[in-house]
Amino acid sequence: MTCEVCGRAAEGALCGHHEVARQNVEKAYPAWREAYGTLDWAAYLERVSANKETGQWAAETAKWLRKQA
Fold first, then answer.
1. 28 within 8 A of 43, measured Cβ to Cβ
2. From 68's CA, which of 5, 18, 49, 52 has a CA 20 to 30 Å away?
3. Which of 10, 31, 24 is nearest to 57 (CA)?
4. How would DSSP label each residue in 17-49?
């Protein structure tokens, strides 16, 4: 299989880099939701992917997650 984000070899939908990024993006959501009050999943992913401080793999993964929803 290949990563649906970057095309690298993958055992599932994502390569190791993007799988770790997916886990980190999902893990950070509760903290963001608490900080912003009401922040739905789609808005969170948009903010993460647009944030200049977000790393490349996390931003790419956030964009991919938005397409999955």
1. no
2. 52
3. 24
4. HHHHHHHHHHHHHHHHHHHHSS--HHHHHHHHH
What angle is formed at CA 40 by the lines to CA 36 and CA 43, rounded to 5 degrees? 85
Measured from the Cβ of residue 30, the count of other Cβ atoms closer than 10 Å reads: 10
SS3 56: helix
| Amino acid 69: pLDDT | 79
pTM: 0.92
Partners of residue 2 on adjacent β-strands:
9
- Cα–Cα distance measured from residue 50 to residue 25, given in angstroms and rounded to the nearest whole number: 13
40-63 core/surface letters (b: 16 or more CB in 10 A; e: else): eeeebbeebbeeeebeebbbbbbe
